[in-house]
Amino acid sequence: MSKPKIVILGAGYGGLITSKSLEKLLKSGEADVTLINKHDYHYLTTQLHKTGVGTAADRQIALSIPELINSNKTQFLKASVSSVDIKSQVVHLEGGDTVNYDYLLIALGFEVETFGIPGIKENALEIRSFRSSKAIYHHIIKQFNLYKEDQDPSRLTFVVAGGGFTGIEMLGELADGLPKLCKEHDIPFEKIRIVAIEAAPSVIPFFPKQSIQYTMNVLEKRNIELITGTKILECTPEKVVLENNIEVPTRSLIWSCGVKGNTIVHKWGLPIVKGKIAVDSYLRVKNMNNVFSIGDCSLFLKDEKNALAPTAQVALQQAPLCAKNIVSSIRGESLKAFEYHHKGSVASIGLMAAVGKVGNFRLSGLFGAFMKQVIEARYLFNLGGPSLIIKQHVGVSREPV
Ligand code: FAD
Ligand code: NAD
Asked: Which ranges form a coiled coil (predicted)?
């Protein structure tokens, strides 16, 4: 009998950690594992805001996948998935190649949600992937150069849409990184405007009052202009249009108003609920025994009505269990139900401040920032041991790339 073929789509947090777990769980020769990803690097999505402002070197954020996996146990394929034929168990890749599977994991992550607001898709910048974040960095430099030609103040106005965690992390990074970028490109920093726009009455509206107040104070101290309780209605190449007839002239709208599951999966005949792949308690796609899905592209209900949030924390907890359940399926053993344990959330506001909550304990300030670094380092440690942490950080300061 031929060996079962396990194919993993996406090498983000969910897909990569599942493949690493399979390397440990599978006996020699028990199954073939193929990991397919668009790029040959795994990017740290949780730190993409740094790439956007150039406060981290590329090699700290984008890690070579072949160096992270055991090539004797996992075959890596750099390719873009175009579709999956569930009936015939075939993955179709851009360019026409195909890959057969017996067991499939779909971990294709998220897309940015624009809510159909006019001009966002065409004109706004996204913190979605390493490439899209790098594009923000290049856009900033381009605006600096153009400002030198036309002195148009809108080129030095950077607007962040959405005051959720992604938004405040981006704002903190802009406040940290722009002074240095200005110096390097001979731009007067006092002419820079950083504007935050949030539809809800405050930033991080889902957090305790004290944390909200702390965050608003940090942002204000860093001269970030806060416009809350105001929705963005439209974006053109030259301005952002808000409710109440407010317009902000800008060439740089960084859109961080939420995410949705990767829409590429919608046409594959899978059960799609709220735009995501509905999975059962074992992380299998509903009513399928050999197709699994985890992370941001999947919908896991924690109770009758509510789904788990699209976070790295969820994907990272799902991945090892998903690997176990794939192996159990191959071996004909019983599967284990996924149980999520929320360990807390911490969001950076630049390098020296953060806001978070672990259990009932509120984190802020330098201690919060330190905890955020610990969380990121822990992920690298789990991925590649102490050598990966050293390799990533030794000799690298927060220099622009
Ligand atoms: P992803 O990490 O999005 O990985 C998907 C992978 O699939 C990518 O490698 C992508 O290239 C690949 N892919 C996509 N389409 C294709 C295709 N067609 N073919 C081949 N490959 C494809 N969560 C937290 O818990 N803590 C945090 O601190 C945190 N910080 C964040 C900061 C920012 C700026 C952002 C944007 C998000 C943050 N999140 C955080 C959320 C977290 O990053 C996501 O929930 C997490 O990345 C989801 O992991 P995933 O494996 O499902 O998808
Ligand atoms: P989000 O949905 O959490 O926040 C989006 C914000 O945008 C909301 O506050 C919303 O009110 C606002 N908004 C929506 N439409 C708007 C409009 N038209 N005009 C103005 N404001 C508008 O999205 P996110 O911050 O991108 O986070 C996505 C996911 O990633 C979440 O699950 C989050 O927890 C996770 N994440 C976690 C961390 C962390 O733990 N450090 C960091 C970043 C993201």
From this structure: none
